[in-house]
Amino acid sequence: MSKKRRDIPVFSTPIIETHCHLDYLDDSDLQATLDRAREVGIERIVTIAVSAGNLDTVIDIAQRNEGVYTTQGIHPHEAAGFDSAVEDKIRQRAQHDKVLAVGEIGLDYYYDHCPRDVQLAAFERQLQLAAELELPVVIHTREADADTRAVLRISAAA
Q: Which of 42, 46, 97, 146 is surrounded by the most beta carbons within 10 Å?
């Protein structure tokens, strides 16, 4: 039995989509998605970075499309790839006028694709980076609420 897709509602007030991954779409799907979003009243979209490999891609998508913005950061699944070179890349690209936040950063203990201590170190460093850059953060947390809160408390106190 197949699920019937619900129609996307049309909004009378402006809508901002704050978290999506437009880089997962091919070019034709991307354009169709953006066109449909505008048709239903979504005026701005934030496409989220997750790995060293998509930092440039999400900026490119944002740069090529009006009303699309982005973030720069390393997802906890990809935390093993966070090093000083990636940090420098995030710092540099965060200066772009279409970059709104550092993210998607955080902790994911559900899948544990990356060792927890590595996730914690990457999360803490990216929080420090966001503070230095005076940017908000986009946080991913799954099955890691206590540690996420603890890291945020320590970060806020610093």
A: 46
